[in-house]
Amino acid sequence: MEYTVQKLGQLAGISTRTLRYYDEIGILKPKRLSSSGYRIYGQAEVDRLQQILFYRELGLHLDKIKEIMTSPSFDPVVALRQHREQLLDKRRQLDLLIGNVDKTIASAEGGSLMSDQEKFEGFKQTMIDDNEKKYGKEIRKKYGDDAIDRSNVKLQGMTPERYQEVTRLENEVKVTLAEALKQGDPAGELAQQAADLHKQWLMFYWSDYSKEAHAGLAQMYVEDERFKAYYDAEQPGSAEFLRDAILIYTGISQQ
Predict the structure, then answer these.
(1) pLDDT of residue 62
(2) Quick one: which of 140, 164, 197, 227 has the fewest CB in 10 Å?
């Protein structure tokens, strides 16, 4: 079956403008153009669009989706199997949060009491699962399974007070980093304060601190596009600036 751009947009629940944009950037070309110059899509394009939307649902940027799907090694069946595993992971996370909400409702209605620890279990497990999915392979290779497992255990056992504090610290790092970036000096007082706050934040997860590990992590923030995107989301250049500030803070020269 073939579809015009309007019909395919209706089928997929996306705008014709989006489909035209996908054509412009080369991620989804139509099968052919009609005699009147209209885009016509066939079954292969429908399947490709489905995979694009799967990746979008998982939070990938279009540039990354294009890189994956235009790779010579791209295998649609393998991609679908990976989609399925990632969706199952997301379902497990949602089940944890739903269970947490159910317990909270029961407690509020006078049923079984819910400990403060239980109130945060779903959120902490979701954080662990998200980190494993996004960065697990890289950080386990860099720091070893034992160190990451200890970090996950430390997070899972975190009290509500410490959980709130680490969340506050994470936000403070971002705010301080943004202000320091405006000054433009990674050796400046604000930048060094951001580096120190970052160390404090790390110690909620790490059992031991070393300057070398801190500097290595900062370098990973620049080299790994996912980490870089996280820090550069508000202001481009933030990841590199934080890296430079941490290298100065730790006294470790850039390799």
Answers:
(1) 87
(2) 164
